[in-house]
Amino acid sequence: MRYQITGKQIDIGEALQSHVKSELGETVDKYMQRPTDATITFSKNAHEFICESTVHLSTGLTASAKGHANEIYAAFDSCREKMGKQLRRHKRRLKDHHRDRIEPVEFGAAGMYVLAAEQEDESGEAANVAPVIVAEMETKVPTLSVGEAVMQMELSDASMLVFRNEKHGGVNVVHRRDDGNVGWIDPRNSK
């Protein structure tokens, strides 16, 4: 597994790097067979250290976790525990569904736009009828089953995930609802 260990405005020593590689490698290998790479970033906010990690799995799924503590090693340990918990849940779901993805997840390209916040004029009315595009980027949309999309959303700790449904090829969305449940939007079935 390839590691990219960085610090935002803090120095990361060799001892911490070797500790991260051994501990995170052990945690990931325990639950997943073929992880491809991991990105670990350390930062500091006032008195608190923050550790953010992202692990890309060979199946195309991505797991991410974040830990906070007053010491840098404790922040990493908190992050590693959360990562282990996510990977353990993911492995349990794969066993429960009796489905191992043999081929990697396919990704399709899609346009992503950042729109400017709505501006009001002196009368309190919206100044622009059409939103102003601030940035244009390209993003990737994975082709997944609904169950895999929910797992990916939970692994990446995101509030929503746009994906292409592997059954019919249509674009779908899964999202975390305010009541704690997961919502699934499938426009193909809206008739």
Salient structural properties:
191 residues; alpha+beta; Double Stranded RNA Binding Domain; SHC Adaptor Protein; 2 domains; 5-stranded mixed β-sheet; 4-stranded mixed β-sheet; 9 strands; globular
Q: Can you walk through the features of this model?
A:
With about 190 residues, the protein is of the alpha+beta class. The protein has two domains: about 1-95, Ribosome hibernation promotion factor-like (Double Stranded RNA Binding Domain, 2-Layer Sandwich); about 105-190, Sigma 54 modulation/S30EA ribosomal protein, C-terminal domain (SHC Adaptor Protein), CATH 3.30.505. It contains three helices and nine strands; from the N terminus they run βαβββαββαβββ. The chain has a five-stranded mixed β-sheet. Strands 1-2-3-4 form a four-stranded mixed β-sheet. Helix 1 runs parallel beside helix 2. The longest helix is centred in the middle third of the chain and has 26 residues, at about 70-95. It is globular. The termini are far apart.
